Amino acid sequence: MAKTTAMRLLELIVYREDIQKVLSYLGNLGEFQFQKDFEKVSSAKKPSSESENSSLNPDADLFYRLEQARSVLAIPELEHYTISPAVPNEDDEREAIALINNTEELHKKEVQAVETAEHSSDTLSEAKAFANLKVSYTELENLSFLTLRIGKIEAEKIETLKEALGMRAQVVPLGDDKSRIMVASSKKARFMVDTELKNAGFEVYYDDNEPKGLLDTQIPVSELKQKYDVIMYFANIVNASYKTVTRLKWRSPAAIDAPYYTRDIPTLFVSLANPYHFADVPMIRTIINAYSPSRTTVRATIEKITGKSEFKGKSPVDPFAGLFGKDI
């Protein structure tokens, strides 16, 4: 029986033919421990390599892997054994290796399951956040890290489409009659998704509320005043070395989401990254630079907007970038 607690190191000189007997005797006494720290060995000959280190204790690596397997399986360490310990034979070694391999595979699956659960939880939270947004389906793609496609497809082709997409995208039937589907994938897979959808005869669905032309975008300011007490913009446009500009991009046609009502409705702009957006929204009189999209920063910003804490910070940069007209 090998102990896991630290023991005093002793050196024994034993005849080669008596090694197994000595080990069995020490094991039965429960006074045995594998030695790995050969720097403490007083002998003049010390191992010069890891392979030589392992050759001095051929069963040590197997023992420590078994210890790890026991820990993964949450098996408590035994203090007393019901059978007499013995030096392991080849059958014991094969069984131990099989147990270790199965445990390592189980541990990998467990880690993958945890990662999948966390990913699913994040996806669900994102979906719930979008549930109350009054925007078109196509606009959701601009608000998330997903590529979303909603449309119609013949029912008998859905399973074929799922097989073609594999794990690269998720197909979700919509409606009681499942006459429409939603396909979601990462941004990187959008070209593959569009190709497979085209091959399957997928017909894109357009939200009836989505503006089709310039006349559809002309919402009277009076109507907006009846609906909203205040309008807030949040921007998270991060600076990067590969970007030549870091500017706001309004929706087409005719920048329908641009703030053309700032003189009639209180309007607030919050930047969670680039602090120089004044150049894009000089018509908004209140701009908050938060500098970071972290959850802590967002919460602190909301607390200050709602009056739960005061604004005390001083801008470390010139948010107006020296532009003319900032004082008008």
Description:
The chain has helices at 19-29, 50-56, 60-72, 90-131, 137-143, 158-165, 190-199, 221-227, 295-305; strands at residues 146-152, 169-174, 180-186, 203-204, 231-235, 267-271, 286-289. The chain is an alpha/beta fold. It folds into three domains: 16-89, no CATH class; 137-204, Alpha-Beta Plaits; 217-305, no CATH class. The strands form two sheets. The chain has a four-stranded antiparallel β-sheet with strand order 2-3-1-4, sandwiched between helices. A three-stranded parallel β-sheet has the order 5-6-7, with no helix packed on it. Helix 3 (60-72) packs parallel to helix 4 (90-131). The radius of gyration is 33 Å and the shape is elongated. It starts with 18 loop residues before the first helix and ends in a 23-residue tail after the last helix.
Query: How many beta-strand elements?
Result: 7
- Rg from C-alpha positions? 33 Å
Q: Averaged pLDDT, please?
A: 76
Beta-strand share of residues: 5-15%
Q: Uncertain spans, ≥5 residues at pLDDT below 50?
A: 38-47
Q: Any idea what the shape is?
A: elongated
Structural domains: how many: 3
Explain the layout of strands and helices.
Blueprint: H1 19-29, H2 50-56, H3 60-72, H4 90-131, H5 137-143, E1 146-152, H6 158-165, E2 169-174, E3 180-186, H7 190-199, E4 203-204, H8 221-227, E5 231-235, E6 267-271, E7 286-289, H9 295-305
Parallel strand pairs: 5-6, 6-7
Antiparallel strand pairs: 1-3, 1-4, 2-3
